[in-house]
DNA sequence: GTGAAAGCGCTAACAC
DNA sequence: GTGTTAGCGCTTTCAC
């Protein structure tokens, strides 16, 4: 319970604190082996552990980065957290995880906290269109990597983005449905407030247009930006929206969901309506979370290469924290579609 | 980019640093309104933000707790993280999240790191039978709440446990299967190394015994403690084990899975084998993660009251950190079974 | 090779 | 009411 300091170690080893500090910091070459041994013994005997807080105050350095996600309750973000942590750990960095619950104010205050804690680099999964709420931090020197958010015109120049091309992904998904013969395709999302969601919606419309369909006639649910749905509620939202849509007069034969959790909810909603996924209504998701493959039926979805993205995000961040920063290059990956069993030709085309 | 300190604020407001500090710490009553206003203006104009690191070094306090989980990749732990964070935030505490990947050494080193960072309370989701690897920390004064781990005989007295009664839960699950008429019931788990897993297995056997069945004849997979399967791989494990079991000569008609992720994998394995969940093989999970209800078929599972458990864990921790600690009371909650659609009578009993 | 000394930015007695 | 002072535990020149 007693806190043992560097001084006590020094006294026990009959050296000065600075010598102990030298040892602690690997400056062992200029030190007699005997001295070194004495110090090491003292450290062990006293059970000494340097205070990171004190060191940090002195050096201003912390080997840690922040990660702000909408919610680790969503397996996609949970998986990202794992991968980022793995990447960080190989370089001796730690990851502090924060849930913003997609609340801009909470996001900002977390960033502020992280800064006050001495953290100078964070991976932000915000996807809010504007990053105005964080520019003050950026000006103070915070290094930010935006994840899953396309670079925007007005973005601060110091910002690095790591994301999949969401428009392309959604387009791929929609084209797949189109090729199967679907014509009445719905799009289910929560609020379209975030950039990546807007992008996905854009890709959806683009595919429809290319197929000669009127994107404005497409079924979009909910019509306007709805209440803020968190990420955990994505499934609830999908379920409710699917139920609603399937009750309408112009039932869709296929549904593009904004992400996998939403897609799983959609599938549930389809079953609630007494229908069967794939046979009656096709569903495509986005993200390719682990559960997608496990689901019944296994979900056709757009794959995001999470491990690579996490590693890239970390590398960028570290480079810029450690100063070896060449001006940040953003990374825009091309996603691909994983066709599984939640999609099939519409009933009308069966057997053709 | 320039760091503004309390001194500069003091100078700008023509007061001393201590007065600024007083304001910062709410000791505003003994201060002329005019002074207070001057300081506040200065703070705003300079964009001053106190350094938490310095404050921490001085006071030895951090309003933060640690959370060590096997892996946030598992939605159950992700959900716990969210709930714990919610509970902590209401009291102004932050949560630092660490993934141990069920590696004792990693667990220990994380605890060590947290301690070095000034954190004095952590929620540990270890479930390793022995907590020997953390007793040194406990002796140094770390307050630990073990989560999802039954109190053990040799536990340090200062340890508080918050958990569901795993044996009862598994017994409930098994009895449900028994009542439906199942007799060949399998148990699928990863390594049985952790306490809660042992407990669940015990409950499973107890139910069998009470029904007059020979628990030793039960199908347990994998037979012995297997390779360490992480929490994300639980689903993989379930899938592989189910495949294996269903290929055998004594096929089970029902399966108790160690947790929901495993159960989802089991369901997938059942379908891989060309069978149907519930109709051909019943499956019961454990945890009641969000996905359980979304799955097809919705999973019958043992419910853990996560929000309450998280709140209790936090309250215990805070009480003991802040010293108002009456000797820690452990909390053992009674879980209940949620019957959904992954369980049904065995085919032989159908229609009786 | 090793030690003395000066802080990092903040807080909390204790003076005034 | 407000300022002075003395550190919290560590690192790091710069002497010796």
Note the gap between the termini of chain A: 77 Å
Query: Mind telling me the CATH superfamily name of the largest domain in chain A?
Result: Response regulator
Helix content bin of chain A: 40-55%
Strand order of the largest sheet of chain A: 2-1-3-4-5-11
Shape of chain A: elongated
The CATH topology annotation of the largest domain in chain A reads as Rossmann fold
Q: Count the E strands of chain A.
A: 12
Sheet with most strands of chain A: 6 strands, parallel
What is the residue-averaged pLDDT of chain A? 90
Strand content of chain A: 15-25%
User: Uncertain spans of chain A, ≥5 residues at pLDDT below 50?
Assistant: none
As for the number of domains of chain A, it is 3
CATH architecture of the largest domain in chain A: 3-Layer(aba) Sandwich
Tally of alpha and pi helices of chain A = 13
Any overview of this molecule?
- The structure is a homodimer of 352-residue chains.
- The first copy, chain A, is α/β, with parallel strands linked by helices and 352 residues long.
- The first copy, chain A, has three domains: 6-50, lambda repressor-like DNA-binding domains (434 Repressor (Amino-terminal Domain), Orthogonal Bundle), CATH 1.10.260; 63-164 and 306-334, 3-Layer(aba) Sandwich (Rossmann fold), CATH 3.40.50; 166-305 and 337-350, Response regulator (Rossmann fold, 3-Layer(aba) Sandwich).
- Helix content of chain A is 43%, strand content 15%.
- Chain A contains 13 helices and twelve strands.
- Chain A has a six-stranded parallel sheet with strand order 2-1-3-4-5-11, with helices on both faces.
- In chain A, helix 9 links the parallel strand 6 (185-188) and strand 7 (219-221).
- In chain A, helix 1 packs across helix 3 (33-46) and helix 8 runs parallel beside helix 9 (195-210).
- The longest helix of chain A is centred in the middle third of the chain and has 16 residues, at 195-210.
- The radius of gyration of chain A is 26 Å and the shape is elongated.
- Chain A starts with 5 loop residues before the first helix and ends in a 14-residue tail after the last strand.
- Chains A and B meet through helix 4, helix 5, strand 2, helix 6 and helix 7 of A and helix 4, helix 5, strand 2, helix 6 and helix 7 of B.
- Chain A binds a DNA duplex (16 and 16 nucleotides) through residues 3, 5-7, 15-19, 21-22, 24-25, 30-32, 35, 50-51, 53-60.
